[in-house]
């Protein structure tokens, strides 16, 4: 074991490390500059030449001691030269210039797009922000009767608008405007203080008051043209003429049907305003398009006759406790409708029979109002015995019967388990065709229909216009509900001829009977006879189309038979002094709603006819829904209304009386007049 010795003596450094001349004369340098590494650190060859020894711990410690005594100097990178800095800065500047150039190019392209290619669009958008276009409604065309009397018309009015931002003294202005607008100043004051820039103070201000407001030049007050629909005669003919809604557009009746014609074309005016909707002070309209007034329509209705028709119908609805009533008067030759009334009782309780809707307009008679719909065209019903025109006209026109053709009429008949009988009980008897029609025998009518058969009977129904539109194109008009061969049953041969199968409208019934009055020629009805421009120029509408539905001889035969209904039959209460009347009564059960069968004790009563029968000029129909007092038969309830209306119409138009007349009808008319006087 080798004894531990002290540290060996220091070995002299190799000659390569001792380069004192370099240290003795060091170059003068400034404080911050780093000195270069000594050359002795690169003198490795001398160390490589030394003999290799195995290091010992003591020697390692000695080596570490020497290292601390002579720390090595860190090598520093060489400082860049000025030429390399200039190159780096130049390249960066070039990049920045390129980027700036690209940005400028993009901005220029965008500006060109906005200023050149999309200039018009942005100009329009800018203008729209400063402009407000206000619609100027056109004056709606009027509705007139056949003599030019106003039934409905529009009058110009003004809408008063306040721009609160331009009103400096709202209290004083409210006081000044109050009497002109008919609004309390206490109500106007907060409206004038509401800072919204647009407050409607009043609508439909009369032209005179609007002119006074314009003359006073109230600050912040502007006016816009409007109109108001007025009906000088109140509810007269309301269910036919119709109504307009809050926007002034047609909502029902002829007002709705002729909306495009009556409305005209609205105009417009463009005003300047701020983006906040405030009108620019002292700015005038920059563009105005004048409105085109609507075209008026002249109806075939006669205002005085319409009034009499409604009054007579309303009085009978009240007297008979009916639910509703319809009455129509028509010119037999032209098909022009002279009056058309549709009224509803307002005090009747609801029951199994549905009551038609009533409008808010009063008829002038307590408890009766105008119907909301035109019942003459929109409501169908089973007509009863007035439908007997179908089998009688077909049988006469085909030569199967004549007025004197006899029939053995039993008290009743049974068909497929159903029993049919007449309204009044009687034993078996012989009756002529004329007597069957005059007494309205159901059994006798069935026997005539049996001669025709199913096919000819159904064909005659359509030939007389049932199941088809009338040509009026009235809103909500019904074509009716008809039986066809696919649904035909054995009992229909007896039920259909007496009017207890098909559902028709009162207008369709009148059209059919009018063809008899017109010599066998069916004439489509007409409600509008002309249009009238804003300047008052009339343009007649085309005449009604017509077609022959039976021979003139058959029509003449039926005319004579219908006269006998009034002279000796069920229609005596339809007689008028001095005139021959041809007519027919009808009483029909009312079907139950939602189930098979009829409402017990509920009937529809009808009377239809024309006058003077020897040279027909006018035809009319009256229908009462479910009369209950004093009776419910058409000859007792509806015929007197027919006589009252037709009598007025004949005298109004100066229709000559019938020469000679009929003794039986004269007696009946005299009796009717005596009853009315008492």
UniProtKB/TrEMBL annotation:
Gene Ontology biological process terms in this record: cell wall organization
Annotated Gene Ontology cellular component terms:
plasma membrane
Ranges where the Penicillin-binding protein dimerisation domain occurs: 136-272
Protein name (database record): Unannotated protein
Q: Where is the sequence biased in composition, kind Low complexity?
A: 15-48, 57-70
Domain Penicillin-binding protein transpeptidase, by residue range, is: 325-646
> Which terms in the Gene Ontology molecular function aspect does this entry carry?
penicillin binding
* TM regions (residue ranges): 95-112
InterPro entries noted in UniProt: Beta-lactam/transpept (IPR050515), Beta-lactam/transpept-like (IPR012338), PBP_dimer (IPR005311), PBP_dimer_sf (IPR036138), PCN-bd_Tpept (IPR001460)
Write out the ranges of the annotated region (Disordered). 1-87, 659-678
Record's keyword terms, sorted: Membrane, Transmembrane, Transmembrane helix
Instruction: Tell me where in or outside the cell this protein is found.
Output: Membrane
Predominant subcellular localization, coarse grouping:
membrane
């Amino acid at each position: 074991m080798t004894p531990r010795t002290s540290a060996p003596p220091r070995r002299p450094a190799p000659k390569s490390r001792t380069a004192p001349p370099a240290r003795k004369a060091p170059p003068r340098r400034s404080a911050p500059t780093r000195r270069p590494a000594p050359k002795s650190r690169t003198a490795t060859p001398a160390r490589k030449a030394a003999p290799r020894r195995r290091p010992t711990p003591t020697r390692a410690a000695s080596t570490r001691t020497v290292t601390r005594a002579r720390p090595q100097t860190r090598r520093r990178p060489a400082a860049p030269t000025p030429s390399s800095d200039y190159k780096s800065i130049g390249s960066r500047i070039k990049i920045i210039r390129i980027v700036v150039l690209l940005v400028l190019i993009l901005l220029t392209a965008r500006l060109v797009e906005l200023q050149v290619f999309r200039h018009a669009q942005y100009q329009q958008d800018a203008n729209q922000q400063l402009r407000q276009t206000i619609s100027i409604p056109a004056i709606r065309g009027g509705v007139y009767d056949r003599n030019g009397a106003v039934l409905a018309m529009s009058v110009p009015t003004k809408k008063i608008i306040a721009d609160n931002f331009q009103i400096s003294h709202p209290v004083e202005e409210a006081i000044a405007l109050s009497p002109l607008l008919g609004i309390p100043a206490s109500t106007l004051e907060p409206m004038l203080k509401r800072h919204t820039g647009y407050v409607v103070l009043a609508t439909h201000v009369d032209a005179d008051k609007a002119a006074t407001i314009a003359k006073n030049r109230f600050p912040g007050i502007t006016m816009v043209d409007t109109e108001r629909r007025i009906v000088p005669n109140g509810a007269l003919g309301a269910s036919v003429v119709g109504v307009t809604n809050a926007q002034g557009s047609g909502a029902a009746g002829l007002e709705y049907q002729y909306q495009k014609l009556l409305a005209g074309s609205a105009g417009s005016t463009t005003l300047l305003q701020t983006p906040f909707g405030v009108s620019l002070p002292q700015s005038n309209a920059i563009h105005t398009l004048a409105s085109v007034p609507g075209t008026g329509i002249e109806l075939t209705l006669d205002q005085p006759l319409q009034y009499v028709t409604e009054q007579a119908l309303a009085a009978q609805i009240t007297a008979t406790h009916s639910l509703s009533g319809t009455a129509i008067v028509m010119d037999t030759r032209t098909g022009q409708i002279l009056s058309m009334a549709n009224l509803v009782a307002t005090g009747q309780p609801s029951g199994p029979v549905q009551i038609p809707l009533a409008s808010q307009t009063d008829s002038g008679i307590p408890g009766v109002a105008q119907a909301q719909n035109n019942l003459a065209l929109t409501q169908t019903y089973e007509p009863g015995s007035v439908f007997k025109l179908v089998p009688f006209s077909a049988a006469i026109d085909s030569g199967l019967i004549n007025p004197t053709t006899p029939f053995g009429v039993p008290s009743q008949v049974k068909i497929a388990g159903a029993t049919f009988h007449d309204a009044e009980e009687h034993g078996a008897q012989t009756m002529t065709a004329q007597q069957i029609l005059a007494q309205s025998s159901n059994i006798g009518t069935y026997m005539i229909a049996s001669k025709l058969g199913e096919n000819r009977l159904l064909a005659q129904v359509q030939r007389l216009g049932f199941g088809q539109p009338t040509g009026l194109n009235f809103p909500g008009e019904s074509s009716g509900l008809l039986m066809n061969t696919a649904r035909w049953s054995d009992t229909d041969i007896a039920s259909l001829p007496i009017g207890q199968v098909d559902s028709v409208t009162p207008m369709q019934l009148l059209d059919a009977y009018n063809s008899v009055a017109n010599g066998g020629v069916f004439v489509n009805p007409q409600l509008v006879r002309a249009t009238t421009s804003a300047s008052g120029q009339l343009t007649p509408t085309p005449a009604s189309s017509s077609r022959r539905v039976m021979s003139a001889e058959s029509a003449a035969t039926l005319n004579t038979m219908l006269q006998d209904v009034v002279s000796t039959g069920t229609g005596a209460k339809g007689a008028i002094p001095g005139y021959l009347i041809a007519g027919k009564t009808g009483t029909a059960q009312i079907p139950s709603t939602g189930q098979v069968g009829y409402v017990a004790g509920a009937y529809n009563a009808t009377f239809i006819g024309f006058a003077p029968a020897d040279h027909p000029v006018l035809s009319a129909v009256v229908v009462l829904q479910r009369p209950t007092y004093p009776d419910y038969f058409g000859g007792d309830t509806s015929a007197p209304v027919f006589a009252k209306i037709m009598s007025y119409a004949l005298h109004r138009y100066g229709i000559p009386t019938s020469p000679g007349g009929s003794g039986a009808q004269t007696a009946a008319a005299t009796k009717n007049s005596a009853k009315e006087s008492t």
